[in-house]
Amino acid sequence: MRSSRYSSIYITANQRFKAQSKDWMRLGVVAAVAAHFALFSWFPTLHAADIGSTGDDTFVIELPPEIVIPPPPDDILRPATPRAATVLLEDDRTIARTDFKSNPVKGLAPPPTGARPSEVPAWIDRDTDPRLTNEAELIRLAERQYPAMLREAGVSGSVGIYFFVSEQGRVTNAVVQRTSGYVQLDEVALKVAKAGEFTPALNRDKPVGVWIVLPINFRAD
Question: Using CA atoms, how far apart are residues 25 and 29, in angstroms rounded to an integer?
Fold first, then answer.
């Protein structure tokens, strides 16, 4: 009997809570409808403010070219497996002797034919370049040899000259490397070049003949 009494009290309280919650829900819905009605009554029309739009001008970005990845290289072939030869070699197998007694100088091949180093301009190894020692004398010689007709006409020019300076520092050959445009000036420049005196070039502290290039200038003034 006691458990039945408590059970009926619990059920009644639960029902009462449900009834109250329904009443509060109806009251909330009515209040919300009334609030919306009042809002639309007081403010019949609502306008949103124009906030506009701001931003930088659009521009086109050039994308870099697509990089084409090359295909992977082919696999490296493994070397063939060596095979032992079937040919039998002699145990005492040596090359011929290379001393002068077995190979006299008379039996050697002649040296290759061709131009000497002093005949054709070419680079010759050296550690120290030759240095001109009589520059003032060459300037005076060029002034004396200057063709009078070209000087009076106001013709000037520069001639590039290949000098071959021997081991003793003397000019044994001269060739026009860059013409001035006047044959007379080129000829005078060759004469002046052959009067040049130099300190010899050195290669490993030994004098050596070499080719160098120097300009010879002619000024009408």
Answer: 6
